[in-house]
User: Fold these one by one.
Assistant:
Number 1:
Amino acid sequence: MKNPIKIILLILFSSFFIFAGKPQTDISRMSLIPAGIYTPLYVDDTTDQNINVESFLIDKYPVTNKEFLKFVTENPKWRKSEVSKLFADDSYLIYWKNDTELGPDVNPGAPVTNISWFAAKAFANYYGKRLPSTAEWELAARADEKSANGYKNPEYVSKILAWYSEPTSASLPDVGSSNKNFYEVYDMLGLVWEWTSDFFNALVTGESRGNSGIDRNLFCGSGSVGATDFTNYPAFMRFAFRSSLKGNYTTSNLGFRCAKDIK
């Protein structure tokens, strides 16, 4: 009979070579979001009125320039001079000095912006995570400092709208600069917009305008007709923003954070 201690040591030794050098998820920098129900802004006969969201983990902070620099250093195909135009437009990482230098005017601790959905997704996959779904992101962002549903608080809604009405600063502060919410997640609202995995579900086309009453309403003054909550102005603004995006788009006020399933 083989020595069981030697077998265990062999397994551990082999595991070291399998996982050595591969990035590991730092769970301590993620927050647990309990299971909940998300109601989409617009629903029709083909859309669920309520979406059950399983509990998940989400990054406490948006991904920073420093973190994305480490990623592109280890993954050259996502460097600004190497990335395919199919996956990122001409503004990709435009403020960086070059492929592996941020430059004097880029804050390493600030959220990385001018980042495409494809690049954000690749980053998340590399670190064993994923992008949060819109339902997950909205569920996490719904919380204010004191409760899981901040939209019952008029002051919280006013604070969000005030941020949406202001232009993005050319020099962003470090992540964690805004108040943490009920789940100890920072900067969900107040620093940069963020990619979601299924942002494209909000897209509508010219041809779709005549396909349903909901789609027609999106293009006229009665855009709130058919909405599940016509008083949720921040949700209308996020819906409009996501509807304007394509996967290779990059802008100076759009970053991302990662999520992870609970197994």
Number 2:
Amino acid sequence: MGILERSDGTRVRGLPLLRGFLPFVMPGRNESAVFFEQKLRVEGTLTYLSTRLERGLPKVSFFHVVLAAVARVLEERPKLHRFVVGRRTYARRHLEMSFAVKKSMADEAVMTTVKVRFPAGVALSDIPGLVDRAIAEGRGQSMTTSEREMSVVGLLPRFLVRFVMWAQRVLDYWGLLPAAMIRNDPLYASVFLANLGSIGVDAPFHHLYEYGTVPIFVAIGRIHDEPVVTREGMLAVGRVVTLRYTFDERIADGYYCARSLERFQRYIEEPELLEQPLSD
């Protein structure tokens, strides 16, 4: 790997002229960021989750449904499953998601991140086995791989830390960063998610990270009651969740992203669609 190919992606060739030129016009992710907000009604989703056990299906949470829906949309909408490094656009080789995990529910508890690889065509019932193990490891007493790496680099003098980070960016720019340094790094992933609803907080608009390759950030808020208009045009109280997204515009245009969110909304509101693996 290197220069022409990367361990985590394959070069996308034949892009339209403007799209191929965007990384030169907007070199950074945050100057390329586009923000979306989506409010979803989840009464049907919550009912579905409560009745899964009655149907003999494994228990899943709302966060599991979100992860399954994101995985399905990324497979069905491959332009979202790209990233930009070194002014080049790459199609990602693996579907991987990262998310923040608090070691415990206390103000002083430290925050860590975990990264999970999802197999092609993953179904909703597969998600807990993949994700819950990673969350348990993140909340364990032992350091994660990225924490161990940071603890070693953090012992160096500041000028050496700056040099290490500079060298990492240069190697990454040219596609020479070893696969071992990418494999467990949570900022080299398809999507980064923050499930703030799990701690009763609403979703903010979050920045993208210039380090790594994550082109999409998803913040999930708390499920709450809110006035809604029914299909009959009546005002009622509904169960609603707000999700806020930050996209790197260089991987796909806003229209493509908006249409992808419509598909995501359908999967959240009709999670039974995620029960079967995605067929080839």
Number 3:
Amino acid sequence: MLLPIFLYGNRVLRKIAKDIDKDYEELPQLIENMWETMYRSDGIGLAAPQVGKSIRLFLIDGNDLAEDFPELKDFKRVFINARIIERDGEKVTEAEGCLSLPGIREDVTRYDRIKIAYQDENFNSYEEVFEGFASRIVQHEYDHIEGKLFIDYLSPLRKRLIKSRLTAITQGKTEVDYKVRAPR
């Protein structure tokens, strides 16, 4: 089932999400719905707060970008109760976008290597290191469960320059070809 993507201005996007356990109600269905929603929205990642759930869950499928970023080949994962343990390596600046901020792409600087602990959809525990673009995608989705958005990394000047576009999103004045929920 397609879920609406919560747009910028919805409070759930600014909350620090809560851990869950295997007894979280209808978790397999939620994950299945999130995959379907992400694919239909042409996303490569989706976090539970983006579909209105303030829980520590996000998923990523980077396979579509594997030609340009080899580290994304076969990179399809569900992350539950994730915690970034370490960020290091070079700082790299790349353009990012977000399904919750349609039409906005801005340069964001992030570390190119992270170590993260998480559980998969079966609650098996992992501790992994991701580098390159995989690291960037994980950090972007991780930020969602920490109540952050990529625009939080922008300079005050850049934020002022995109203010009218952000205001339009909060007012539901955006055209996308996926189901959305504007702030109330």
Number 4:
Amino acid sequence: MQKAEIRIKKLLHGTGLKLSAAESCTGGMISHLITTVPGSSNYYLGSVTSYDPRMKQELLGVAAETIEKFGIVSSQVAASMAQGVRRLTGADFSVATTGWADAYGDEHEPAGTCWVAVDGPEGTKTFRLSNHESRKANIKAFASSALEILTTYIEQNLNQ
């Protein structure tokens, strides 16, 4: 099977549809993977790497109350990030990640947890991932999984 970033190109290239990303725990890896594909500038607008909660609030519009109530690593924050970056960039589709890539966690989610959100014409969907390898391996696994989730979401939206 082809990598998700190549499948995304096949789905979006030449359609006029645009994509953006908001990343926290993946630290730009999603953006990196997308931009390794020639021609990605045709459909990829860019990303916001919002590592600090203040960046999530100020750039992406994540409500402080959402972070306080559900935690920085949550379905609700991931969804707000995806919606925020889509609104900010004017993209048709977006993907967002927030998680704990290594030994840290909090009272809401343990280490090795990532929430992925995708947003587009059919609304927002969130997915919880778990991986317990090294920080570097977790980042790669979360980014690759997020792209697989995004690919499926785009396919479902385009086939309606």
